[in-house]
Amino acid sequence: MIKGHIDFTLPTRVTFGSGKLIELREEIARCSFKRVALITSKDLVELKLAEKAVVAAEQGGAKTLVFSRGASNPTTKLVAEGVKELGPFDPDCLVGFGGGSAIDLAKGIGICLSHRTQDIKALQSNQEIEVRSIPVICIPTTSGTGSEVNYWAVISDPKTNEKLSIGHPAMAPHLAIVDPELTLTLPRKITLWTGLDALTHALEAYVSILSNRPSGLLALEAIKLVLENLGRAVNHGEDLAAREHMALASLLAGAAMQQVGLGLIHAMSHQVSGFYDTPHGLTNAKLLAPVFAFNLPKIPQEKRASLDSLSEMSFQEVLTEIDQRHGLTDEVITVRESDLEVMSNRAATNLNAKTNPRHPEPSEIESLYRSTFTVV
Ligand SMILES: [Fe+2]
Q: Which of 204, 317, 334, 339 could form a disulfide with 263 if both were Cys (CB 3.0 to 4.6 A apart)?
């Protein structure tokens, strides 16, 4: 007998495969989009990857404008700047082209443009409003975010150092184009950090208190794919098969977390990135093993057994081994003593902590911060 009911939504159409970037041309022509704004980052423009998306959009019959100020941990201020710059162009479609930051920025700009406001925070807190967005096509160039298949955007508020999780069904991407060829030139460290973000999504979804059979299948497959392919993708970036499997892992993990949420790793890492602008994937990676150990007593036996069966080592040992093999133990993140209390309290009440298998007290979170990061 199946316990409980299953509530499942996959809000976004996905087209996946090497060379699929060309689908951008097809979709723009099919939908008759006429003014397409590409939200991306400077490095992707310099690598001439963004140009490929621009060419595809123009071949589809659209005029294009590139906003290339995407950066890690996009802020409310950057959303406002994007709205200001793109407003006069009046785009009828946005393309988020890059890692999770570019995609989340595109989602944020999409709802703000649609509501003719630059203030995403006010939009988020207005319960009266019927949220809508300009269609957003998401094209990830990293394998980690999963944002291309969910309706969440993480936007930082520099005034309060908070990372806001802004989500609404209307923010679900219009289409996700996942072309693993776009990840072939990703540097080693970014491949590692984003790959471990995908592993974090999959693991947190797998042990989420809301998890169900479909989300469990997606999450466990994503974990397997990361364990089998991360090393090759990191050390042999040109290996297309490894890149494809990592892209699939990221996608499956993203679909799982859309259903059942995340957990304490994201609740804690958002505070660290919010205060110190640290890379999301690296911050999660540092927290993976310690938070898994903290959660272990509350993870159901059958799930622990499934995780342990993925290799000859226990899953806890697998996580420790990943840290050592990839030199994560040498990556130092420093946090300030004076911020620890606020960060711990915020993490305890963060949306992501609500689906964590073990209820964390702020004092326990503070201990985890102390044991994971360098406190000054
Ligand atoms: Fe993440």
A: 204
Examine the domain organization and report whether 211 and 317 are in the same domain: yes
Measure 169 CA to ligand 1 centroid, in angstroms: 19
- What does 229-292 look like in DSSP terms, one character per residue? HHHHHHH-TT-HHHHHHHHHHHHHHHHHHHHH---HHHHHHHHHHHHH---HHHHHHHHHHHHH
**Is the pLDDT at 5 greater than 80, yes or no?**
no
How many angstroms is it from 281 CA to the middle of ligand 1? 7
pLDDT digits (tens, 9 = 90+) for 20-43: 999 999 999 999 999 999 999 999
Give the structural domain span for 244. Answer: 186-375
Residues, CB-to-ion distance under 5 Å, ligand 1: 197
What's the 261 CA to ligand 1 centre distance in angstroms? 11
Q: In this structure, are 297 and 225 located in the same domain?
A: yes
Q: The pTM is what?
A: 0.95
Confidence of residue 70 (pLDDT cuts 50, 70, 90): confident
Q: How far apart are the CA of 195 and the centre of ligand 1, in A?
A: 10
Closest CA to 72 of 168, 159, 194: 194
Separation of CA 154 and ligand 1 centre (Å): 9
Average pLDDT, the chain: 95
